[in-house]
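Quick one: co-fold with 3-methylquinolin-4-amine.
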Amino acid sequence: ALHLAQAEDGKGLDDFQKVYNAIAEKLRDEDEFDGYIGYGPNLVRLSWHVSGTFDKNDNSGGSFGGTYRFKKEADDPANKGLQNAARFLEPIAKKFPWISHGDLYTLAGVTALQEMQGPKIPWRPGRVDADEKDAPENGRLPDASKDGNYVRHYFGRFGFSDQEIVALLGAHCLGKTHLENSGYEGPWGAATNTFTNEFFVNLLNENWKLEKNDAGNEQYNSNKGYMMLPTDYGLIQDGKFKKYVEKYAKDQDAFFEDFKSAYVKLLENGIDFSKLGKAYVFKTLDEQDS
Ligand code: HEM
Ligand SMILES: Cc1cnc2ccccc2c1N
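Sure, here it is.
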């Protein structure tokens, strides 16, 4: 059965906005991380990885239990590099001991996206810490060396449509690949910490060459120094995906709207929030300064 959301007792919008602000202020302070990309992209990746273990067939994994806090999950080779995001969040968890780990990991992703000028992401609390025995086994996160068919099959486990898959992968406009983490190398020049539709624009406009990188893995490189993973490139090799890539390359508003919906679905998969009120929409730091 689905996990029933149980919000942290007595906590409301103002309490969670305080957590948002603490994360957002720390993001601004610690801007030198990863060659001045900052922690934003890494936090977004953590929010996806803690949710991407979900399997709708037995409702295992997913963001509810906050089981990333256990070594069994954190040490999954697919999570290499996310120790930075986890370390970043430790003082936040200490300052707000009442928030569950699942709520913290997902709220951190929402905060990072909004502070990187992404869409407003409605967010609901209610994830409850589970035990280490509930942590999913390693191997549930995707393999970047594969093609579009693999990507469609992989996300089938979450019940995502072609449109939702393409929208979600638009998050690869953020940050970069690091050879020591994943065996893929992204050039510094192309790394960004602003949420836009340029992943789709680059996919369509650059002339991509398949090359072996220093780890012996094949990736697509462009003469402007951009890179794409084979799974990224699969979105333009597959005709059904490609039409959404073209839609989002032309219309950033449509991308923002569809990304928001798919990302909420990713973060909430496997959880029954029906007992809770409506979702919170947090103000960005800029909106509170004025
Ligand atoms: C087919 C599915 C996917 C594959 C194979 C994939 C693979 C990867 C790989 C290999 C990296 C580089 C990690 C590193 O070397 O540090 C990466 C980074 C990243 N991924 Fe994905 N990813 C997928 C889906 C997603 C989704 C659904 C999201 C979010 C909604 C996402 C967000 C990110 C972000 C923000 C980064 C940059 C992290 C950083 O700069 O530290 N990815 N991904
Ligand atoms: C431009 C681009 C393409 N693919 C990526 C995959 C993972 C992380 C970042 C990426 C990125 N900035």
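If it helps, The pocket of 3-methylquinolin-4-amine (ligand 2) is lined by residues 172, 175-177, 186, 190-191, 199, 202, 226-229, 232 (CB under 6 Å).
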